[in-house]
Amino acid sequence: MTDGTTAIVVGAGPNGLAAAVALARAGLRVTVLEAADEIGGGTRTSELTVPGVLHDHCSAVHPMGVGSPFLQTLDLERHGLQWCRPEIDLAHPLDTGEAGVLVRSLDDTARGLGPDGPAWRRVFGPLADGFDELATDLMRPVVHVPRHPVRLARFGLQALQPATLVARRWRTDAARALFAGVAAHALHPLERPTSAAIGLMLTAAGHRFGWPVARGGSRAITDALAASLIELGGAIETGVRVRSLAELSPAAAVLLDLAPGAVADIAGDRLPARVARAYRRYRHGPGAFKVDLAVEGGVPWRNEQCRRAATVHVGGTISEIAYTEREIHRGRLPERPFVLVSQQYLADPSRSAGDVHPVWAYAHVPHGYPGDATDRVLNQIERFAPGLRERIVGTAVRSAPEFAAYNANYVGGDIVTGANTELQVLTRPRIALDPYSTGIPGVFICSAATPPGAGVHGMCGANAAQAALRHLRIPVPA
To answer: Which CATH architecture has domain 6-44+74-81+214-284+418-472?
Structure first.
């Protein structure tokens, strides 16, 4: 045991809470400080439109959460977390009326893709079958001794490719668009190297675990993490904004669930000059413009499978998606942006109020885009669901600057906390053997700017906690 050894975590998002739980499990006395009045960061949930209708503020669907090597060790179900799975995990409609459809069953997905089914199975069969082993390597720092080197190398050969190149393995518009929509979660041009990585990993996770949602909203994930921390003797204080490390009580370890620029601000002159320069140069990517809708009777998708899918990618063909992602990186918002839509209520009816259902949607927009993209988002959805506007009974929007105000880690509306450029994917948040170390003894960064990056999986926090425990020479719990 480590009685008397204290740790402070700044930020109560999923990574901050995961770091706190990992430290508390090792016996440290942990206090989490959160600037907002509510914990959760990107996993908050509330009634944004009409009473009784629950909307996720940011993160909504969690294939990497249910598959997280760290979260799987915590028995969060004992603290109220329930994963709910829809009939159809993902649909991607086309103007022809057809749709590419992903369900947890690889065989059923392949059958639905017709002539592209065998090729889909060849790509994703090995990835899904070996997902658990692959995740143990991919969700760690880039520089490490791999536990499954052959499997990791095979994945790497595909992941380093552009998404558009990987998509050539399929011939139909439906299969290519289905993959492109998943790859677009990287918010990076699809013709660039490494843009296939997220598409491959999220699709494989879908075939291994599905794309589930948390019952009652994404806040249930952080509520369960918080309950686990409290059970271990930890404490959480909200409404506490930390502006300098000097404000913190003495602690053996300090972990910062903050964007690199914020770490540089808080650390000030204590940060080594080379680290400060790297954190100041850290690049943030495109933003998000979010539209939450309360829809009576649900979205009237033209394609029946879209009406049964918890996630719908709205962007047309792969060439259209590639064009929109190029444009936003050039600072221009196209008339038809790529839009992600979630209908979580199909898996979790508790989010609805009678026949009024929450519909969660956001478009990729240029970094810091100040304009109103509401009509473009609605027009894009109505392209595949004519009559949507007639069913809307409540609306709430959040622009890219408003995302940054909501969560300081979302600089310029960048909800993935960092551009997924080729170099930054491999070296985030800076070039270092230990990416979690700030260069200040005992102070670590644990936000989504660190490996393995964005997603409600807690691995950034868990990995940073392991780095802190090694620094303190405390054994890492199995």
So the answer is: 3-Layer(bba) Sandwich (3.50)
